[in-house]
């Protein structure tokens, strides 16, 4: 059972992730690395939407379907895009390499915190 300490630690890690992404933009006066925040915030949505569409009945558990696999694929694509986008921008010279590193680390902290929140605060099924 997650408590107040878990909320505080995860909030602190989320704040560090946002700080790294914002600093990767502000220190070099180039705000393209902020696109990473959008990809990591949108990343859990396909999993959630496809999970809701695949199992509309609360009483019957489905073993697996194509829509759940599609949701996982889209989530993986968005997470990979959050890593690849700064790398492509740094390779093309649009952002600095150190901004790329800060943006990737901050984005991974943001997405990891979102996943941790959903793991710790998932509702338990009672029968």
- Using DSSP, what is the number of strands? 0
> What is the end-to-end distance?
19 Å
Mean pLDDT: 87
Beta-strand portion reads under 5%
Quickly count the domains. Answer: 1
Derived from helix and strand composition plus strand pairing, the structural class reads: mainly alpha
Low-confidence runs (pLDDT<50, min 5 residues)? Answer: none
The percent range for helix content is over 70%
Rg from alpha-carbon coordinates? 17 Å
What is the tally of helical segments? 5
Main beta sheet: none
General description of the model:
It is built from 5 helices and no strands. It is an all-alpha fold and 127 residues long. It has one domain (4-120). α2 (35-42) packs parallel to α5 (97-120), α3 (44-54) runs antiparallel to α4 (66-92) and α4 runs antiparallel to α5 (97-120). The protein is flat. The two termini are 19 Å apart. The model has no long low-confidence stretch (mean pLDDT 87). The chain crosses the membrane at residues 7-25, 31-49, 70-91, 97-121. InterPro entries: Vps55/LEPROT. Belongs to the OB-RGRP/VPS55 family.
List the keywords.
127 residues, 73% helix, mainly alpha
Summarize the structure.
This protein is mainly α and 127 residues long. It has helices spanning 4-26, 35-42, 44-54, 66-92, 97-120. The longest helix is centred in the middle third of the chain and has 27 residues, at 66-92.
């Amino acid at each position: 059972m997650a408590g107040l300490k878990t909320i505080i630690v995860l909030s602190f890690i989320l704040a560090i992730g946002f700080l790294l992404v914002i600093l990767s933009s502000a220190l070099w006066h180039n705000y393209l690395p902020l696109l990473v925040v959008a990809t990591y915030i949108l990343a859990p949505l396909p999993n959630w939407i496809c999970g809701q569409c695949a199992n509309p009945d609360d009483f019957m558990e489905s073993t697996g379907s194509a829509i759940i696999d599609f949701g996982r694929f889209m989530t993986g694509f968005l997470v990979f895009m959050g890593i690849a986008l700064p790398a492509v921008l740094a390779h093309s010279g649009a952002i600095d390499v150190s901004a790329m590193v800060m943006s990737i680390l901050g984005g991974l902290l943001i997405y990891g915190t979102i996943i941790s929140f959903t793991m710790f605060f998932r509702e338990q099924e009672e029968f």
